Structure formats: structure tokens, C-alpha cells
């Protein structure tokens, strides 16, 4: 029979590990962000411009104001589709629709305001690419609907990883999909 001090040490160790687990999980981001600069037609920064992101699915609004350098940051945005608007006194309102954010995406959207009344607006509908300058990571989000439509013969993480842009499977490397041992993946440059 184990001693009382050994049992107490085991319980303390368990609670210590269990207590650290939530902190470790919080380090993994499940949100996205949008940041950028707001400039006038001459390329000068617009201080105090209001930037607003509205999520299409929920209609929730996230707001920020530009700082003295013209920068804005909208943090902890849930993934989904957004409409981004910006307005400032003496400028036409800016609107960009259909911004799609994935998990851990850091989108950069620079805004150029045109001179005019705030009752006038400029709407950008083109799918201009958003730059992610902070880091060079690739990720793929598999929704439940997408997973149900994918014709994968084995339910393995390896098979799904091959559907991620930039991932290449090595044909000559053995893969044990039943045990989820992933061997032979490389990322294309």
C-alpha cells in the first residue's frame, strides 16, 4: 500500500499538470486579426479614423481607431466573412466586403481614403489579396461540411494533411495511417 506522502505527492503532481494544461492550450490561437494603415490621397496618415469590421454571420461589430502613425488593429476576431469600413471627418467612407478570415490569420488591409463628404462612400468589391507580412505560415481549416464531402478512404490525419496547400507526400516513404504515424511530409517552396 502506498504511503500517504507518496499519494499526496501524486495528487499534487496531477493538479499541477492539470493546472498548467489550460495555459498551454491558450497559447494556440483560434482567432484572427485585421490590421493596416489608413492613408489620405497624398499618402499621409489619417489619425483618429474609425475602422469597423462586421462579421457577416453574426452581425457583431469590432471597432478600432487609428493611432498617430495611422495604424489600426482589430484583434481576436472569430473566423468567418467580414465587411471592413473606415471613416474620418472630411473623407468619403471606405467599405471592403467579403474579407474571409481563417484560424490564426493575420490579415493586412491598408485603406486609402478619398477626399469628400462622409455621406459619400467608396466600396471595394475586388478580391485583392490580403498580405500576411508578420509570419510565413500555411494553414487549412476543415469544416464539418467540408470533411463530409471529401472522398478520403481512410480517416487519417495524413490523408487530410495532403489537402493542405504546399504539402507534398513522398511516394516511397511508408505511412502507417492506422496508427496516425505521419512520415514523409514536406512543404513545397
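^ C-alpha cells above, recovered residues below v
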Amino acid at each position: 500500500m502506498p504511503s500517504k506522502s507518496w499519494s499526496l505527492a501524486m495528487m499534487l503532481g496531477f493538479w499541477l499538470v492539470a493546472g498548467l494544461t489550460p495555459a498551454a492550450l491558450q497559447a494556440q490561437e483560434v482567432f484572427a486579426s485585421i490590421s493596416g494603415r489608413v492613408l489620405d490621397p497624398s499618402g499621409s496618415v489619417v489619425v483618429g479614423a474609425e475602422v469597423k469590421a462586421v462579421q457577416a454571420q453574426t452581425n457583431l461589430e469590432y471597432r478600432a481607431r487609428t493611432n498617430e502613425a495611422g495604424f489600426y488593429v482589430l484583434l481576436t476576431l472569430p473566423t468567418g466573412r467580414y465587411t471592413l469600413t473606415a471613416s474620418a471627418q472630411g473623407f468619403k467612407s471606405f467599405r471592403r466586403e467579403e474579407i474571409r478570415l481563417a484560424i490564426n490569420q493575420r490579415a493586412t488591409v491598408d485603406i486609402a481614403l478619398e477626399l469628400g463628404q462622409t455621406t459619400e462612400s467608396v466600396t471595394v468589391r475586388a478580391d485583392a489579396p490580403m498580405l500576411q507580412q508578420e509570419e510565413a505560415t500555411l494553414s487549412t481549416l476543415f469544416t464539418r461540411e467540408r470533411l463530409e464531402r471529401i472522398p478520403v478512404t481512410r480517416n487519417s490525419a495524413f490523408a487530410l494533411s495532403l489537402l493542405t496547400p504546399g504539402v507534398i507526400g513522398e511516394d516511397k516513404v511508408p505511412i502507417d495511417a492506422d496508427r496516425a504515424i505521419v512520415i514523409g511530409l514536406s512543404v513545397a517552396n
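The radius of gyration is 24 Å.
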